[in-house]
Amino acid sequence: MDDHPLVGQALELSIRAAYVHLDFARVLSAAEAEEFARVGGARVKLVMLDLMLPDATGFDALLRLQQRLPQAAFAMVSSRVDAHSVAMARAFGVKAYLSKAAPVETLVNAVGAVLRGEEVFPIETSADPAAIDFHRRVARLSAAQLRVLRGVADGKLNKEIAGDMDLTEGTVKQHVSAILKKLKVNNRSQAALAAAPFLGRIER
Length: 204
Hints:
mainly alpha, Rossmann fold, Arc Repressor Mutant, subunit A, 10 helices, 3 strands
């Protein structure tokens, strides 16, 4: 998953050449990835995704795809490589965090490493305990509830979220109640505060 044509095409060509026995698909957005996962998700063994996509920010796409592809391994490929992002990725179960600035050969070799069950990280850092706890709780949300939480974290009202998701306000209200229970918070403000460090918007 990468919306940058040159980066995506270069990685695709290199992976295809190095792993001729594997099928490879490239998508440009989180929406395309979710549709691909819906149709052929049982075959997906590894997902490589950019941290910043046109229709997903933070770890949104990762969380949504982990729900659809529980058997797949995940690797992040990003121009943003810092201790906080890497620690969060570890906490969210990502198996590799790769820099776009790295040689293509390094990225290609990481594919084989992850498929062999290895982990590949550029920074020696431990997983963030708060992120581990949040990931454990948010993993209990349905796909729809995760989208509602995204709206709550963005400060949107139920009416706005309903319009975005083509739902009734009553349905959104029910989702919010379920989210509060699963995240073990008392109100939507607490839910937004809990989610903000992990679903916050990332500047390109």
